[in-house]
Amino acid sequence: MDIYNKFATLYDELMTDFDYENWFIYIKKILEKFNKNPHKVLEMACGTGNLSYYLAKEGYQLTCFDFSSDMLTIAYDKLYKFKNLKLLNQNMINFKINNVFDCIISICDSINYITDEKDLLDTFINVRNHLEEGGIFIFDINSYYKLKYIIGNNTFVEDREDVFYTWQNYFDEENNICEFYLTFFMNEDGENYIRFDEEHKERAYEINEVVELLTQAGFREIDFFEGFSFKKPYSKSERINFIAIK
């Protein structure tokens, strides 16, 4: 079992503060607000399939992809019973699927992991090319404020029953990159712990930067809200949800 596979096995335990069912309900409210009733849905960076489960259960013709084959292995164990679902191993920036969709979704600040502005523009162009005319793109980001002032330059420690971890973060103001350094001690057999380390980076984007890139990519209608609401973001909003229509 390699390092990233170890992280994949812990992912769901570490994400217990995310309510995926309520996230799914919020997405349904977005679709209703924008008068969309999709049939074919694509979920980018689906991870271990937590949102995918609710999308598949709803009956959408669902395609999901993730860059991590280890995450997809766990997702498969949750989703293999659904006949209306397809899992793929692809990258957000250059994914290529021989289909177009009514709705494309990305959650859990996956977009922040695209740290190069040109790559993000390429991602948005690729998303638009995979949407039907009038199709809707729904995604969220960790806000600039959250990455710089809440997560950045802070250290977090958590001690759970089977895993202890430290999460050290540094914010690079020159490049607007938040670097995450995580060290895990995982209980293997009730007595012995193994250590492994993870490094991640997220780019802090201002709202106007994302809107400009979506505009360049050719989306004709763009809106944004504070996460899980339909209120406009304010200076200390931590999650921003975007809606873009082709």
TrEMBL record:
One of its GO terms (molecular function) is methyltransferase activity. Pfam families: Methyltransf_25 (PF13649). Signal peptide: none annotated. Residues 41-135 form the Methyltransferase domain. It comes from the Bacteria. Keywords: Methyltransferase, Transferase. The keyword Nucleotidyltransferase does not apply. One of its GO terms (biological process) is methylation. InterPro entries: Methyltransf_25 (IPR041698). The keyword Transferase applies. This is Class I SAM-dependent methyltransferase.
